[in-house]
Amino acid sequence: MDKKKILVVDDERDLCEILLYNLRAAGHEVDAAYSAEEALQQDLQAYSLLLLDVMLPGMSGFQLAERLRQQEHLLTPIIFLTAKDTEDDTLRGFGLGADDYITKPFSVREVVARVKAVLNRSEAKEAVRNDQLLSYKGLEVDLSRKTVVVDGEETSLTKTELELLSLLLQHRGHVLSRQQLLEGAWPKNVVVTDRTVDVNITRLRKKIGRYGQSVVARQGFGYCFLAE
Question: Quick one: average pLDDT of 167-189?
């Protein structure tokens, strides 16, 4: 596993030092913040995992997690470290999108093992997500969410247009015949003509802005998506 960057957020400095030492010994790059406010001053997108104490001075760990999930839209895995071990507290933690919940006092070896488990799960999820993502420069198709983003702005495509774009990006640089596009983008029980493909390609080009010029026709063969 590649070295991961972890942020420990806890106001107990001695505990932070112990966690930093052991997590670094396990091969991770680790920083510490001693309050939620200090954590918010960091580039949180740069971290692969956040270890959050719940009972922080000022903003609590729960409040920080809620802000990160709702306002910052941060999907980074979170493990809560806390002395609050009631069922309600645990359920609240998981309700805020926590990936694990470890109660104090704890074994440092257990924390390191559970950090590894969460990172492994996160890596597996990211691999699945990457398989569902097609992109070229500022053009991005998310197959799982069925969305298309053009230079940072989501663009509305019909199901057929999205299927055509996905096929062209998946086979970038290769010519796909109209028959291949028909079979890949239309239901099998629907009868359509080659002209229907041309009309939908024209509409698609307009909707994807400057990337429309990358969808090139090959006379007598079909279409391909050419990268510059």
Answer: 91
Instruction: Specify burial of residue 65 (Cβ count, 10 A radius: 0-12, 13-18, 19+).
Output: buried
- Give dist(CA 225, CA 214) in Å, integer: 5
Tokens read off for 78: 């979170």
Give the whole-angstrom CA distance, residue 96 versus residue 144.
Answer: 23
148 φ, ψ (degrees, to nearest 5) = -130, 130
| Residues contacting residue 19 through CB under 8 Å, at least 6 positions apart | 8, 10, 30, 32, 51, 108, 111
Cβ(81)–Cβ(106) under 8 Å? yes
Closest CA to 15 of 101, 106, 116: 106
Helices 194-207 and 159-170 cross at an angle (nearest 10°) of 90
Structure tokens belonging to residue 58: 């000022």
Q: State pTM to two decimals.
A: 0.58
DSSP code of 209? Answer: G
Mean pLDDT for the chain overall: 89
pLDDT of residue 104 exceeding 60, the answer is yes
* Burial classification of residue 152, based on how many CB atoms lie within 10 Å of its CB (0-12 exposed, 13-18 middle, 19 or more buried): exposed
Is residue 105 reached through a cis peptide bond, with omega within 30 degrees of 0 on the bond before it?
yes
User: Is the pLDDT score of 131 beyond 80?
Assistant: no
